[in-house]
């Protein structure tokens, strides 16, 4: 099952502030996320292309979508639903003004805004795209998730301390993402 939703971030350009939109998809079984590249004009053609991109991402990660949960946003066209139906995924449209019905997507959007995007002022779509790709890679492969038995190897940690070797710190996004590890001696 996959859930999707839009979120936005203000980008300050030479022409003034503009709103960039991102379409995110989260696989509920593994909590893995795919975010589209940001756009200023999220029309139905762009949204349909993001559905195709997401299905390619699903194939790369061995995810077979059976259901897609989405809201009643007008940007989701018949073509968007047709792309998912072509992969035998049933599209479930939640009721208007019922964000709790899409809780996984809403939770991720809150997380990325609180833990990442709230710390940055963006000046271009490419900068926002870089921030999103870096943070989503961290979210998918490094960040521990609370769920059990979700196929996330981040939870399989060796808790035996390594006795030798220096501790190294890896930072990304100016220190927003920080991880520590002990190098083997």
UniProtKB/TrEMBL annotation:
A Pfam family annotated for this UniProt entry: rve_3
Every Integrase catalytic domain range: 97-147
MF terms in GO: nucleic acid binding
InterPro entries recorded: Integrase_cat-core (IPR001584), RNaseH-like_sf (IPR012337), RNaseH_sf (IPR036397)
Gene3D superfamilies reported in the protein's UniProt record: Ribonuclease H-like superfamily/Ribonuclease H
GO terms under biological process: DNA integration
Protein name stated in the entry: Integrase catalytic domain-containing protein
Organism: Roseovarius tolerans
């Amino acid at each position: 099952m996959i859930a999707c939703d839009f979120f936005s971030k203000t980008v300050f350009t030479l022409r003034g502030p503009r709103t960039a939109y991102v379409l995110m998809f989260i696989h509920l079984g593994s909590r893995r996320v795919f975010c589209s590249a940001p756009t200023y004009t999220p029309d139905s053609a762009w949204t349909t292309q993001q559905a195709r991109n997401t299905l390619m991402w699903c194939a790369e990660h061995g995810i077979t979508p059976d259901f897609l949960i989405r809201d009643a946003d007008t940007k989701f066209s018949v073509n968007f639903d047709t792309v998912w139906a072509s992969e035998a995924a049933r599209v479930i449209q939640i009721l208007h003004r019922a964000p709790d019905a899409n809780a996984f997507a809403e939770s991720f959007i809150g997380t990325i805004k609180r833990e990442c995007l709230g710390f940055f002022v963006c000046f271009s779509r490419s900068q926002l795209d870089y921030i999103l790709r870096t943070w989503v890679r961290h979210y998918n492969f490094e960040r521990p998730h609370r769920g059990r038995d979700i196929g996330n190897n981040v939870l399989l940690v060796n808790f035996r301390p390594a006795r030798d070797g220096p501790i190294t710190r890896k930072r990304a996004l100016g220190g927003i993402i920080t991880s520590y590890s002990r190098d083997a001696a």
